[in-house]
């Protein structure tokens, strides 16, 4: 075997500066298939979305097992994968836009390069959206929790509404004394404890509503809780990772109800009014005083809002019977959300600018989310959160 090549006196250039970069070129048909797949999946969803049987099959046979598997996978990592993925997506998008500008500027065939890079972004977005359609949006067009469990679509009487509101007020008064408070009366329950206990709060409700039965995955605290607070939201369920993400900056005493609401989404309750009802029902039947108080108080807030329009006198009487603890928590909740609309940096024009910007962003987020819900067969949009009143009255007056 000859080693003559190693004995040469000529210098060896080990750099790759003169070499051409090797690229993998896929056949045109493969490129077309990659681009066409998300378009076909999205088109298929929008073609079949008003076929309840197909959407029910998709939500039960496709969405539920995939979301469950993703929820189990996400448990491996203690932080919110949703936040990490969203952050990475924003960083990548900024980088890609900057890169597109710089690459396009120094090349001759600018239009060709720009179109290719724009197509890449569109295809990525379409893949994400098509997955979200089949993993989550399909559930909005399938028979909902109320329909599957025999709830009627009839309205409620003012008398029944007043009676159930009184029940919730009495229970809120009772359980308000059972949660831990400091010397000023502020709730000081350990968030980590009721997060850990949350996967058991549905046990009693599973017996009554077997369609809800299944494994629950512990919720996660959000690093961007401050942003959620500024935009007015307390939690979000993300179907692509199967996670229930909680705004831990919101008032502590209502947080268990938020947890229960997001866990309802885990169990395939898609509509917001139904998730509110299921979450409240799970809380008040849980046997855990922290969750029970959050459930009674959360339901009371929705019920009194409706009662104030239906029977003003009953509303005055019931709200006047609330305990000092309930009134204190109610005021804290109001003060907190009001505080998220303004800033106090000590510089007036900065405070005004930040407040105006926050209001604009919050309104924009509400408008986008309202439009999204309406597009997904939720006619009330973001007002659907309060539409749980009919379900509460029908269930608790029975």
Low-confidence stretches: 1-19
Report the total helices: 16
Helix content class: 55-70%
What portion of residues belong to β-strands?
under 5%
Task: Supply database-style keywords.
single chain, 398 residues, mainly alpha, 2 domains, three-stranded mixed sheet, 3 strands, 62% helix, globular, disordered N terminus
Structural notes for this entry:
The chain is mainly α. It has two domains: about 30-140, no CATH class; about 145-395, no CATH class. About 60% of the residues lie in helices and about 5% in strands. The chain has helices at about 30-50, 50-75, 80-105, 110-135, 145-150, 160-175, 190-195, 205-210, 225-230, 255-265, 270-285, 290-310, 310-320, 325-340, 350-375, 390-395; strands at about 220, 235-240, 245. The chain has a three-stranded mixed β-sheet. Strand 2 and strand 3 form a beta hairpin. The N and C termini lie far apart (about 95 Å). Mean pLDDT is about 90; it is low at about 1-20.
Write the layout of secondary structure elements.
Layout (H helix, E strand, L loop, with lengths): L27 H21 L3 H23 L6 H26 L3 H26 L9 H4 L9 H18 L15 H7 L5 H6 L11 E2 L3 H7 L3 E4 L4 E4 L8 H12 L5 H13 L4 H22 L1 H8 L4 H16 L8 H28 L13 H8 L2
Parallel strand pairs: 1-3
Antiparallel strand pairs: 2-3
